[in-house]
Amino acid sequence: MSEASETTPAASRRTLLCGAAAVLAAGGTVAVTGCSSSSSDHGAPKGPVDLGPASAVPEGGGKVYREQKIVVTQPTAGQYKAFNARCTHAGCLVDQVKNNQIQCPCHGSRFASTDGAVQDGPAPSPLPAYTVTVEGGNLKVTPS
Fold first, then answer.
1. N or C of the chain: less Cβ packing under 10 Å?
2. What is the pTM of this model?
3. What is the pLDDT of residue 42?
4. Torsions phi, psi for 76 (to 5 deg)
């Protein structure tokens, strides 16, 4: 075998391994930035959003509208509150309303269902509040 043919496979393996390492490093960066809170509006909708029937939000609880990135609570009968569903710590979407708290699954932040205030960190600030109205039995949410 010539010297050139002996070095070509090694160079190809090295190139392949370096390429794989670069892809893995880039993937890690994407995974980390996917949870970052670099956006000041945290993905706020741009205008009024119709979320459907108000009856979908339980009294004393709430509902996360993942696609719209909005969480709506009903602390008392007929009183609706709406917030941006992105946690102010790392930008993850909150996943549930339980025990009068809006809960983030990523790092354990908890927010009050009545005003979005931080009840347990590491979130540094409350969830941004939105204006919510009931029109024709449907919830309509507008960023404040």
1. N
2. 0.69
3. 52
4. -135, 165
